[in-house]
TrEMBL record:
Organism of this sequence: Papilio xuthus
GO cellular component terms given for this protein: endomembrane system; endoplasmic reticulum-endosome membrane contact site
Protein name: Motile sperm domain-containing protein 2-like
Gene transcribed to yield this protein: LOC106114662
Coiled-coil regions listed in the entry: 389-416
PANTHER family associated with the record: MOTILE SPERM DOMAIN-CONTAINING PROTEIN 2
Record domain MSP: where: 260-378
Length: 454
């Protein structure tokens, strides 16, 4: 099984054989990042040669588009401030949502090259702030029509996830899809591999809660988050979320200076093998007199899926946290993986997500209680996990051709609909004229008969 060290070694050997290839220094730093190399290996199903080629293609592409130079000073900020693309909320796995307000986008009205730069800006910024953890693409199609269906843009987004941002996609959520767009998404769905199809989730207002909890959903989706998009420069964004979690080894187990929470079990999470998953759980109870907000962090975010990873607890209320091991990781009964549960007092339970974020940002270490937990994996769980790896392959060429054909077919359909409307109008006019003429003939015939009888 290939390791990040193997991938690094082979990439550096290829780089040495191509002395004229000058990749950006920030991109070459990625080769030193164990987590980034692990993402690449997962993306290519642990194929070392494909991993080297992918790294090479990523760095070549980033150099060609100037990805490391894209920032708030050289992108179309009017495109950003419109709020067509923006991150907000999290799915049930704790992955950040990148929301696309499709109704606000009309194909051909903006410079597509500038749109791509704006998308790269968001992808790179989120990748930094989320430490490379997966994100969910959320298509808000409520109220959309054919003019909002941009297959070129959809194809570009797919290519980013497929080729340049490895192991970065959690779900594709399609919200309130109009029937006129069903054909497009059916074609996309049919061309994806089984793993890709599993990531596509078609939801309505009634079923959204299966993937995004009401606390994380915008009010326009029927959720509780009344957030209105407002651009915040990157250097002023939430630093708590952008940093990788590391825990000091001192004080294993529970640390509770204010005794805000009771955690069961109190120091070790026991994982069990059930069905196809390896999972463990903890229960946290608010022992404080006030409402608290909690967050859960781990030293290995790529290894675990935490549901929920944050929330609000009124006094005396409990919450069970489910922790699932992602497939493909070697497990040991004794592990260095740790979990950190953090809590802070908040004034009331119905605060907006923005207000809660501000409380966390302004909280000092003395105001935040922390509870540390170790992990234990029984032998049964280790044997069950094995060496399963999640495949991330997609059929790129056929997808590209199919999307282009679909776009052409939609344009033909639009022209045909326009012609049909014209035909319907003339048919209606002719029908009205025929009815009028028939009425006049009928009336004239009756008047003639009346005169004959006199």
């Amino acid at each position: 099984m290939a390791t990040p060290a193997d991938l690094r070694s082979q990439f550096e050997a290829k780089l040495k054989d191509s002395p004229n290839q000058n990749f950006h220094p920030l991109d070459l730093d990625r080769v030193k990042d164990e987590k980034y190399l692990r993402r690449v290996l997962k993306h290519v199903d642990n194929d070392i040669k494909q991993g080297v080629d992918m790294l090479w293609d990523i760095f070549t592409w980033r150099k060609s588009v100037g990805a490391n130079e894209i920032n708030e000073s050289n992108i179309r900020m009017d495109y950003i401030n419109e709020g067509v693309f923006f991150p907000r909320g999290r799915d049930i796995d704790g992955c950040l949502l990148l929301i696309i307000k499709s109704k606000m986008h009309v194909k051909g009205q903006k410079d597509f090259e500038e749109i791509k730069k704006a998308i790269i800006y968001w992808f790179d910024r989120i990748e930094r702030e989320e430490n490379g953890n997966k994100i969910t693409l959320f298509f808000d199609l409520d109220g959309c029509g054919l003019s909002n269906m941009d297959m070129e843009l959809t194809n570009y987004l797919i290519s980013l996830f497929k080729s340049y941002y490895p192991y970065f996609l959690n779900y594709i959520i399609i919200y309130q899809m109009p029937w006129v767009m069903s054909a497009a998404f059916k074609v996309i769905k049919s061309l994806l591999p089984a793993k890709g199809v599993e990531k596509m989730k078609f939801v309505s207002k009634d079923t959204l809660k299966d993937f995004v909890t009401p606390e994380q959903a915008l009010t326009c989706w029927g959720g509780k988050d009344n957030y209105t998009f407002e651009f915040i420069p990157e250097n002023k964004s939430n630093e708590i979320m952008s940093k990788k979690v590391t825990f000091a080894e001192q004080g294993d187990g529970q640390h509770s200076p204010g005794e805000m929470l009771r955690i069961t079990p109190n120091d070790t999470i026991i994982f069990k093998a059930e069905n196809d998953d390896i999972s463990g759980q903890i229960t946290i109870t608010n022992m404080d007199d006030s409402v608290i907000s909690f967050k859960i962090r781990t030293t290995s975010p790529e290894k675990f899926r935490v549901r929920p990873s944050s929330g609000v607890l009124p006094s005396g209320v409990s919450q069970t946290i489910l922790i699932v091991v992602q497939p493909g990781f070697h497990l040991r009964t004794v592990t260095k993986d740790r979990f950190l549960v953090m809590s802070v007092q908040i004034p009331k339970a119905d605060l907006s997500q923005k207000e809660i974020t501000e409380i966390w940002q302004n909280s000092t270490g003395s105001k935040v209680d922390e509870y540390r937990l170790k992990c234990h994996f029984p032998e049964k769980a280790i044997s069950k996990n094995g060496n399963i790896m999640e495949k991330e392959t997609e059929k790129s060429d056929t997808v590209t051709n199919a999307l282009n054909n679909l776009q052409m077919n939609y344009e033909v359909l639009q022209r045909q609909i326009y012609k049909l409307k014209i035909y319907q109008f003339f048919t209606l006019m002719l029908t009205a004229i025929a009815v009028l003429l028939g009425y006049l003939v009928y009336k004239n015939t009756n008047d003639d008969r009346y005169c004959d009888s006199i």
